[in-house]
Structure formats: structure tokens, C-alpha cells
Amino acid sequence: MCTGKCARFVGLSLIPLSLVCIVANALLLVPNGQTTWTKDHLSLQVWLMAGFVGGGLMVLCPGISAVRAGGKGCCGAGCCGNRCRMLRSVFCSAIGLLGAIYCLSVSGTGLRIGPQCLMNGSWDYHFQDTAGSYLLNRTQWNLCVEPPDVVLWNVTLFSLLVAASCLEILLCGVQLVNASIGVLCGDCRKKQGSSQ
User: Any transmembrane segments, and where?
Assistant: First the structure.
């Protein structure tokens, strides 16, 4: 596969993943679809905006850059086999890789610690000391009185962020290697076009 075609495929995969992360993080801000608890009772991992910033915006840029690097075109005055766009894609992919790692680490921590909720009359991270074992014991989830169903909400959305960021790490890594090859060797489409 040409570096250009690979870049386009990776970019078209990264863009929807970044949008999924942005939407998931936005939903984490409104537990159970209500804004009643948004001001004072959201967990730190929600406020760190890992899905919006890390898995979202920091991955959206390399996605767009990879799509552009996969397109035909010249940069500057003469054609350079798309090497300039590939070079930009190398840097963007490195930034996207860091963003996806940030999203993975914050979301994984959010899953391990659990949500901040009202239990036994106090707002706290009641599952923090369980080291994530609450994830397997669904009977504990109902112990949180407010926000209603917050554990299910957080587990679902943080799991989605973890899965999306793992895919983003993989795709950004592939694009980092692919774009580096594209910078060094150029795009093979020019060679294919001349042989036909």
C-alpha cells in the first residue's frame, strides 16, 4: 500500500474516533443527562477533559493532516512527492499520540477510581479504595444515591474513551511510521502513474 493511501485510511479512521472522544467527554459532564451535579460533584478525571482535549482535539489535527497527506498535490513551487505534507503529518501524529496516551491514562484512572457520588450521606470517591474491583460487582453500583446511575454512566463512557484512545494510539503510531517513510521515500503513486 502506498504511503499516501495508508495516510488517507488512517486519517479517515482517526477523525471519527476523535469525535467519539469529544462526545463521550461532553456526556461525562452531564451525568444521567442532567446538569444538576455538574458544578460541584463531578470527578477530577471528567474535569481534566482527556476526551475533549487529548483524544479529541489533539487527535483530530493528525487525522486531518493524514487525510491531507494522503491527497495528491504539490507543496511549494515544485512537486516533492507530497513529502512536505508527510513531514507535517509526522509532527501531528506525534502530538496525536501524546494526546491519545493522555486520554488513555486519565480515562483508565477514572475507571479505577470511580465516580464521585453521594453514598451514606457524603459526597466522595467511594470506590477509590477498591482498586477497580467495583467494576465487576454491579450490586455496589446502586449504592450511589446521587447522581442516579452515575456509575453505569461513568463506566460506559470511560470505557468508550479507553477503547477509542487505544485505537488512536495504534493509528497514530502507524501514521508516524508511515509518514516517516513517506518523507524519506516519497509517495509511490507518482511511480505507479508513470509506469502505466
Answer: 10-30, 46-66, 90-110, 157-177
